[in-house]
Design goal:
This protein is α/β, with parallel strands linked by helices. It contains ten helices and seven strands.
């Protein structure tokens, strides 16, 4: 595990040397998203049902480009920046959650994707976000649980379905809990890059609650 991390760091260093990063919004060198561009991104003002919180408006061109680059152009470092921003913008919600479970770790569950998508992208973008989110917390109260929720069926990508009812039907019964004993009595945060109708997150939250989770929250970068 440590060797794998070391190899990735060397790879990232080489890529950054040959192809220096540029701000997604304004192309300033050696910035993923500069502070000026971050301040310009539209925040999400639309309500999402079922205890899901999202930071940014997905229609904002900067955030849309950032997520597109993360998911389809293998730019993992963008996910690391977005995970950090997710933590920073939801710090008040996080503080309330921490206070509700003093002295106990909070599980963070990345939204799982299919094996095919993982092979194509080389990673699960929700896991990249989740790791960065957790690393942003100084007291290490979060614990990633990447194997709890399993996507047992491949489905039509949610982005290809425009009807809300069909989106909800598309993910119904798709997820299952691998080890219910781990979930019982725990407080859990489910993390994803984008939530539209909330269908995927709501389904995951539902199966976690059914398995005995005490509290389940959904955090997304954009809506």
């Amino acid at each position: 595990m440590e060797i794998h991390k070391y190899v990735n760091k060397i790879k990232d260093f080489i890529l950054d040397t040959i192809f220096p990063t540029k701000c997604i919004g304004c192309n300033i060198k050696n910035q993923i998203l500069c502070n000026d561009c971050i301040r310009k991104i539209s925040l999400n003002e639309r309500e999402i049902e079922g205890g899901i919180s999202a930071v940014f408006n997905y229609q904002d061109p900067i955030i849309k480009k950032a997520i597109w680059e993360l998911k389809y152009h293998h730019k993992r470092y963008i996910g690391e920046k977005l995970g950090q921003l997710l933590y920073e913008y939801l710090i008040e919600d996080i503080s309330d959650i921490k206070m509700s479970v003093p002295g106990r770790s909070i599980y963070v569950v990345p939204t799982p994707i299919s094996i095919g998508k993982t092979k194509t992208r080389g990673y699960n973008q929700a896991l990249v976000l989740s790791k960065s989110f957790c690393d942003s917390c100084e007291n290490k109260v979060f614990e990633i649980q990447n194997k709890i929720v399993i996507k047992k069926l491949d489905t039509i990508p949610q982005a290809k379905i425009t009807n809300r009812k069909k989106r909800l039907e598309n993910v119904r019964g798709v997820f299952e809990i691998k080890n219910k004993e781990i979930v019982k009595g725990r407080t859990i945060i489910v993390i994803d890059d984008v939530t539209t109708t909330g269908g995927t997150m709501l389904e995951i939250m539902k199966v976690l609650k059914k398995a005995g989770a005490k509290k389940v929250y959904g955090f997304a970068v954009a809506h």
